[in-house]
Every structure is written in C-alpha cells, then in structure tokens.
Queue: 2 jobs
Job 1
Amino acid sequence: MNIGQASSFSGVSAKMIRYYEQIGLIPRAMRSDAGYRNYSAPDAHRLRFIRRARDLGFSVEQIAELLVLWRDRERASAHVKEMALSHVAGLKAKIAELQAMAHMLEHLADHCHGNDRPDCPILADLAEPAGAEQGPQARHKSPRFGVDTPASSRHRAAMVAPS
C-alpha cells in the first residue's frame, strides 16, 4: 500500500509516517521503481499500534520500547504492565499540575475587577519572580499595582530618557 493508504488505515498522517521512518521508529519503506513508498500490512499495523500509543500519551521513546515488547512473544507481560502503570502515575501527576494551574487562574480571575481600571491581580501575579511561593494562601498582602513592575519601570524610563 502507498503512504496515503497506510495513513488512512493507521490514522497516522503521511508527514508523521515519514518522521517515524526518519527516526527509526518504523523501518524504511520499500520503494517502487518510481520512488514511492510501499508499506506492507505489518507496517500498517505497526503504524496503527503507534497511533494508539500516541493517543494514550506515550512518548516516542516509550513507544519504541513498547514496539520491542510487542514483537517479543516471549516477554513477560509484567514489564508492559509496569510501564503502563508508571505512565498512569505520570498522567495523574500532570493532571494534578493542570488542576492546580486552573485553580490559581480561577482565584486570580475571581479577584480581578475586570473593569476599565489598570489594577489587575492576574498581571501582578505574573510579574512575581519565578519560584516565588504561589497559591491563594501565599498572598498575604495586596500587590502594589503599577509600582516597580517592568511595565511601569519602562514607562518611567521612557519619560526621562533623552531624545
């Protein structure tokens, strides 16, 4: 089958098929006399496997390892299960991180007046140094809007800079 047919069968775009071939995730396709790629049924199934693994969030490196395990009929399933559970733990950690970000943004948005005044706790929080303690409980004093922020410093500098 040609690359378009392999793409349709597997759900992997032709561009990604070429990329996977380039990085060695799939073997180089056989070429027709005209130079077109020809994929076998096992190649197409391998691509479908890759697509499903990508849909589940596995990295390219993890997929390479999964492909090795998939082809090894004498492997123990315990290693595959261990990989899957490790991946689940990583996904749960990422979910917790995303939820914390969403809660922080909701908290900041709740405290933003959203009017025509320039005071904005969202921007004030973003101006905090990286690594500063974050979270609703970390804010004990009101931010000083427009004071010593990069934007106000630039504005003051522009006003006093010689032309």
Job 2
Amino acid sequence: MLGIIAAVLFFIAFLINAADIATNDVFTSVNFMLIGLMLLALHVAGIGSGWAARGRRR
C-alpha cells in the first residue's frame, strides 16, 4: 500500500515539475519526492505490507 502511495506522490511531483506549476514552499516537487522516497523506504522495510501470518510450527 505504501508503494502505491509513493508512486502517486512521484507522479504528482513529476506533474508539478513538468508543468512548471508555481506552488508555495510546502507543496514543491522536491517535497513530494522526499515524502515518496520515505514511503518507498518504509514499504521496502516491510512497514505497512499487511499482517504476517504467524502460525505454529509442528
């Protein structure tokens, strides 16, 4: 789930950069890319990937 959100944020950052949209200091393309990278790192680390099935071994 976090990987999908990261991809959406990367796409928004690309649109802001490609269309040369003037935004304030909070919603810059660099900030969207950094948030996307953070979410991608959390996804790769296994955070937010769902519940792991923990069964008993016999």
